[in-house]
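In response to reviewer comment 3 from the previous cycle, which asked for concrete evidence that the modeling workflow produces usable outputs, we include below a single protein chain processed end to end. The sequence was submitted unchanged, and the resulting structure tokens are shown without manual editing.
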Amino acid sequence: MIAKKHDQLPLDFGTLKAGEITSAIIAYLTRHGFKVWRQNTSGIYDPATGRWRKNPQGCNGVPDIIGFRLADGVFVGVEVKAGRDTLRDDQKQFLNELKQAGGVAFVTYDFAQFQQSFEGRGLHLQHRHD
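The workflow returned the following structure tokens.
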């Protein structure tokens, strides 16, 4: 039997791609001496209303990946974008404040772009095996 076009749901390549980029960056940063994780910023699901609500303890604009370099505590934030997704004002503000405070901030649409920016800043040379 041949499947009809309407029998299949379209694949969500945008979400899958962002997730794959995020996983690759977390693995890369971990190999380069960082302690990093995926920061959940989606809010809190309220089963009574069937809706998501803002986490009252949350911080606006927090990047998708956050953490620190084990050697010296330098904070890192990576905002992962996919497709036509663009930075919101609160994300720009957080990343700018992070840079001003001496942290390392990235916005990336793919892994190769992230790696090029990371290595272009010489951050891959600062990895220490403690």
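The helical segments are 13-31, 89-100, 111-120. We consider this sufficient to address the reviewer's concern, and the full set will be provided in the supplementary archive.
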